[in-house]
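Please fill in the sequence for the structure shown.

STRUCTURE ENCODING:
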């Protein structure tokens, strides 16, 4: 079983991102369990979404404390991570001792008019970048999950943003980019 934690702030689309990712991985043929964790529901409050992914039924239903991968929507949240973690962080550059892949999701989302320059909505952008890193996630399944989750009037902007992030990860990291969902 592989565990993934999405970390960010209220208003960035963390909970919706967890739902979309769970659907995409389910369409890919995995068993998936997804659930959010947040305090007060307000813009800017810390939010997490947890996913467990496996080729077999998942019985565990508790919070994830040591995930295999982090998807960090707000780079400030990366400062408290344990040493040596793997993740994707929303930042043009991020100097750290962690194994974090950087994606300027804010820039891509603003370019596609998702949110505003001061408050971009980056959930589909980050998922596009994640699809570029996960060996076992076809972009087609992410597209399908986005189409089934978001309203029609938001699809084009979100699909364009996700594809741009996916392409950037492919170009930036090449064959070395792949994370795997295979259990050891």
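FILLED IN BY: designer on duty
SEQUENCE:
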């Amino acid at each position: 079983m592989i565990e993934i934690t999405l970390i960010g702030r209220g208003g960035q689309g963390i909970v919706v991102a967890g739902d979309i990712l769970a659907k995409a991985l389910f369409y890919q043929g995995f068993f998936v369990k997804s659930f959010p964790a947040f305090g007060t529901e307000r813009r800017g409050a810390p939010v997490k979404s947890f996913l467990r992914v496996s080729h077999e039924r998942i019985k565990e239903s508790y919070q994830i404390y040591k995930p295999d991968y982090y998807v960090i929507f707000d780079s400030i949240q990366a400062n408290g991570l344990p040493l040596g973690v793997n993740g994707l962080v929303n930042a043009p550059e991020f100097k750290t001792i962690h194994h974090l892949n950087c994606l300027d999701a804010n820039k891509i989302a603003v370019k596609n008019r998702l949110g505003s320059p001061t408050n971009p909505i980056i959930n589909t952008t980050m998922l596009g970048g994640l699809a570029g890193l996960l060996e076992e996630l076809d972009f087609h399944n992410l597209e399908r999950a986005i189409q089934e989750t978001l309203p029609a009037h938001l699809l084009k902007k979100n699909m364009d943003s996700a594809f741009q992030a996916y392409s950037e990860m492919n170009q930036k990291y090449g064959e070395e980019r792949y994370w795997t969902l295979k259990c050891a």
